[in-house]
Design brief:
Elements (H helix, E strand, L loop, with lengths): L1 H32 L2 E3 L3 E8 L5 E9 L7 E6 L4 E5 L9 E8 L6 E11 L5 E11 L1
Parallel strand pairs: 2-8
Antiparallel strand pairs: 1-3, 3-6, 4-7, 5-6, 7-8
Amino acid sequence: MLNLKKLLVIPALAGLFVMAYTPDSIAQEVKKEKVVTVDKTVHDFGTVSEDGGNISTVFIVTNNTNAPIVITGVRASCGCTTPEWTKEPIAPGKTGEVKATYSPKGRPGPFEKTVTITTDGDPDRIVVKIKGVVES
């Protein structure tokens, strides 16, 4: 009876060992295939004039995967920032754009706003920032 228990325990432990390490390797392989990056995570406008009009910057989104990805949405942290973005699928190795436009009118002082980019790639959310100082 004791030998039968040993015969059952050894394969069970081997199975647990395989199960413990396999999901991580699979997850790492999937991550390698679905990597989306941006060219910068922060854009500093420096000092801008309140009466100088809207200011904009472009964040370049690169598809480093082996499949097309889509920017499914872009959300600014406030109504003073307006995002625009590439709506078409971005082919492997190609780029898309997210343009963030800030309205300084009536907003003197320092500012720091976030723009959340949502994709169907990995990561599925990328947060970038714009900042500066509005001079009246």
